[in-house]
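debug: dumping io for the single-chain case to check the tokenizer round-trip. Nothing else runs in this session.
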Amino acid sequence: MRIEQVMTKSVATCRPDDSLDAAARIMSERDCGCVPVVESNGSHRLVGMITDRDICLAAHKRNLKLRDMRVDEAMSSRIYSCSPGATPAEVEELMRSAQVRRIPIVDSGQGLLGMVSLADLARLAEARKVSERRGVTEHEVTETLAAICQPRAAAA
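debug: decoded output
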């Protein structure tokens, strides 16, 4: 199985020059905790990721309203991504090693194609119990969640 069969294809994005308020609004409307950041020129080239935690920490540190801060002030430019041909097991291993819950799926030019979350892999593991097709196991998802939740200082 290829990860493109599992990924969410309809992904809301924001731009580096958008306000943190706009990014938070997307998260609220889409019921998600992370938004991919794409170039401001209208392309779908991925340049960063912003999470609800990034927004909270930026607001706390700067003590400004979200509408007065830009996405590029809080986003992470370090991107962990996979190609659409990756296997669910490869994506799960990347989540584990990078300690992230979501992985953008990109083409060879870093164009955003979709997103895969740990929840997507958990649903795949549950479906595997029924269909017996190999994806990732419940045990692997549990191990990944445990690794992601480790304090980063302990992981180093």
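debug: round-trip ok. The first helix runs from residue 20 to 30.
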